[in-house]
Amino acid sequence: MENRKNDHIKYALSYKSDYNSFDDIELIHHSLPSYDLKDIDLSTHFAGQDFEFPFYINAMTGGSKKGKAVNEKLAAVAQATGIVMVTGSYSAALKDPNDQSYQLRKHAPDLKLATNIGLDKDISLGLRTVEEMKPIFLQVHINLMQELLMPEGEREFKEWKSHLKDYAEQIPVPVILKEVGFGMDRKTICQARDLGIKSFDISGRGGTSFAYIENRRGGNRPYLDQWGQSTAQCLLNCKDLINEVEILASGGVRHPLDMIKCLVLGARSVGLSRMVLELVEKYQVEEVIAIIEGWKKDLRLIMCALDCKEIKDLKKVDYLLYGRLKEANQ
User: Which residues contact 130 (CB under 8 A, 6 or more apart)?
Assistant: First the structure.
């Protein structure tokens, strides 16, 4: 398990996508604003809660010494900046009660902490995860292609839908259904909605590729490295659902402009994985905190240039599509 978790970190940092869907979106500048910069409000709402900022550190790692060190850095950054942090899959701790890589409130007692578990785990393990972690919400990840490519991956999937129904009905904290970088299609969202799920992290292609990672670990099918739909395309596909369910976006988000583009396309908040992982690997915690505080300023700056006072106003922003996105949406 430890070697697998360390491989995930190593290959996630080495992968560079050859296409980012956000580059095919141009936002229309507004020259005559209605607000002062200090008027701009970054707060958002999802999973039954209000959040001060519309981005969070998404699920990445745990279950190894390396994962523990990374998580402790991420927790320090999240606590200092007031953003939410989601741990990687809690499955390692379910197998090993001595695993301390997820016990982050010891180091960051005021941390806004959520956690993550795979949909292959039945409801008893989900309930145990919530009892042990006491998260503000529980991400339940679906990673079908990763499992198929992983040499030691799951091969039985037909119980996933019944598991999801159990999670929706029995987990005592809000549940978010999360993809892992392959993109969540509209049909999946509608099926899960009908099973009782209200919040979705569509996690599209463009950032961390678990197809690439597992192929480097022995999956040996590099022609599937680019499997899935891009983050922007997933958001465009489900724009008509944004008033029915809560859409969160992740996958290939590099900076505040990409975050704003996600919010323009209807996301309630934006998850960051590889970008933050790279920062805590390259810089000291204090430097990463300063970078993220700068992101907050830049989000306000961009919203002002779009004449938007609140996150919900961004849904009215005009934009242009180019390249692959334009071709796919004509």
Answer: 138, 171, 172, 173
Q: Counting beta carbons within 10 angstroms of the beta carbon of residue 10, is it exposed (0 to 12), middle (13 to 18) or buried (19 or more)?
A: middle
Helix axes 285-305, 274-282, angle to 10 degrees: 140
Give Cα separations from 231 to 24, 30, 152, 249 (angstroms): 12, 25, 28, 7
Residue 190 class from Cβ within 10 Å (0-12 exposed, 13-18 middle, 19+ buried)?
Answer: middle
In sequence order, what are the beta bridge partners of 199? 176, 246
Separation CA 281–CA 119 (nearest Å)? 29
Three-class DSSP category at 23 = helix
Instruction: Give 138-166 pLDDT, tens digit per residue.
Output: 999 998 888 888 877 788 899 999 999 99
Inter-helix orientation angle 160-170/123-133, to 10°: 40
Strand ranges inside 37-127, DSSP E: 44-46, 49-51, 55-57, 85-89, 113-118
- Predicted confidence at residue 262, as pLDDT, reads 98
Distance CA 30, CA 18 (A): 31
Dihedral over alpha carbons 296, 205, 72, 107 (to 10 degrees):
60
> Which amino acid does the sequence have at 328?
A
CA 126 → CA 29, 120, 174, 253, distances in Å?
A: 45, 10, 12, 29
For residue 329, the surrounding DSSP H or E stretch is: none
For residue 252, the Cα-to-chain-centroid distance in whole angstroms is 10
CA–CA gap between residue 80 and residue 164 (Å, rounded):
34
The pLDDT tens digits of the residues spanning 165-190 come to 999 999 999 999 999 989 999 999 99
Instruction: Give the closest residue to 54 by CA, choosing from 288, 278, 256.
Output: 256
Task: Provide the token pair at 327.
Answer: 């071709």
Q: Round to the nearest angstrom and report the end-to-end CA distance of the chain.
A: 45
**How far are the Cα atoms of 29, 285, 296 from residue 288, in angstroms, in the given order?**
29, 5, 13
Yes or no: say if 93 and 121 are a contact pair by the CB < 8 Å rule. Answer: no
